[in-house]
Amino acid sequence: MTGMPSEESTSEDGRHEAVGDEFARHARSAWGTTLVRALSTAEYALLVLISSVLLVLAAGILVAAVISVVESQGSWQEQFISLIEELLLVLIVLEIYITVMHHLRGGRLRLEPFIIVAVIAVVRHILSIVIRLTFPGAPPVSHDQLVELSINSGAVVVLVAALALARWSSRRPPDR
C-alpha cells in the first residue's frame, strides 16, 4: 500500500463529484429560475401600478384643465392657451401610458413612443411661446425668444427625422 488511491476509488470519487456538481448546478438553476420569476412578477406588478397612476394622472389633468377654464376670469385667449397646453400634457401622459400597456401585453419596448412624447413636449413649448407673443399688449419679441424658438424648431426637425428613421428601420426586413 503506497498511499495512492486505487483506480476504483478515484472513479467513485469522480462520480460523487459529478453528482454533487449536477445537484449544485440544478439547485442554482432552480433558485435562479425562482428569482427570475419573482423579479418578473414584481416588474409586472410595478408596471400595472405605474399604468394605473398614469391613467389617473391623465384624467386628473383633464378634469383640472376643464375646471380651470370654467372658473377662470381671464380672457378667452388665456383660457384657450391654458386648455391647449393642458391637453398636450394629457397627450404626453397618455402616450407613456400606451407604451407601458404595450409592454405589459408582451410587446417589446419601442423607441417611437418616446420620440413622439418628445415631439409633443417641444411643440407644446413652442406653441406656448408663440401664443403668448401674439397676445395684444405682449412685450416685443426679444432676441432670446427668437433663439429659443429656433432651437426648439430645430429640435422638432431632428426628432421627426429620428421618428421617420425609427419607423423606416422597423419595417426593413432583417439582413441575413
Automatic annotation (TrEMBL):
UniProt keyword list: Cell membrane, Membrane, Transmembrane, Transmembrane helix
Entry keyword Transmembrane: yes
Entries under InterPro entries matching the protein: P_starv_induced_PsiE-like
Topological category with respect to the lipid bilayer: Multi-pass membrane protein
Main location: membrane
Cellular compartment(s): Cell membrane
GO cellular component annotations of the record: plasma membrane
Transmembrane regions: 44-68, 80-101, 113-135, 147-166
Top-rank taxon, per record: Bacteria
Pfam families: PsiE
Keyword Transmembrane: yes
Protein name: Phosphate-starvation-inducible E-like protein
